[in-house]
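dumping the sequnces here before i forget
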Amino acid sequence: MPAARYPRLLPSTLSASQTWLDVVQAGSRLDLTARGPGAGAAIFCWSVVDPYEQLSDAYTFMELRRVRPTVGDQLYSTLRRPMISLERDDAGHGIDLLRHDYWWPRDKCLNVLAAEATANAIPAPLRRDWPYAVNFFARTRISENGDLIDDPVETKEGDCIAMRAKFDVVVAVMAVGTVSPAIDILVDPRACS
Amino acid sequence: MFPKIGQAIYADDDEEILTLMEDTSPGPHGLLVPPCDPTMYRLRGAGCAHPSCHDNFHNALARRGIRLGRTPPSICLFQNIVANDDGAIAIGVNASKAGDRVTFRVDRDLVFIVSACPNDVFKRPPLQPTDLEIAIDRTEAA
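..and the predicted 3d for all of it:
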């Protein structure tokens, strides 16, 4: 089977546990829209030019000094470079940087996404070197003694989180939760510089 | 966010790799904080040549003939980091003092790398690199 043409730029809809992986060019806007209550998504991201410059929960956490980015914030790479800016978050504090895999075991998640990257000849790090996911539509919070508490997801149908790529990146998404369909993904390249 | 006595530290494959057995320090110890790196020192005006935990890690691996494309998460021992329930964090002056000790049990064969943090750039809070003593007790090893 021939490899799909990338970037695809067409809307995609994922059910829970389905994946999406594509090149998102600098300046493009990427919208993730929940299709039902409780939908969520694990997001991975790295530079097209250097798959080892990766979206970093830890560096973003340190730059922002908080674990839940908000609209107007930037998410940083492992080289402390702004990688993605957040332009919309209907869910409100719907992103967490807490490096958990409550939703989907990391190992299974990476097996599926790494296979998709290989099948479509998309630049990707070695399997062992994949970054950690940033969790979208997540409601994890930190208790007084530092424990992570996985609050019920409050996402509603139609809630959208929009972000813009600061340079050419690969974005990998795994839809999580129990609703199907779970997430709509739309890449809008019109704002590309 | 902060390991407690008896709790395990997990590897990427969800298997236990270390268990925190004893901690005489006031803690806490940060699990999400990245190691200092050349970019941080460059951005803070200290230049790329400033020693860093990132470079110490990769240099230590290189001496063993190991090369990694990324820097895995580190445990920042004695890092005084506080998180409140709205997700904001604050980094305070480390409360550790000479003689404080953290003891781990090693739960599987591993490469253990320690970098005594060379960060002397930030003045608020005042940071001062200090020596660390490391001891391995093999008496209970299988």
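Residues 23-191 of chain A form one domain.
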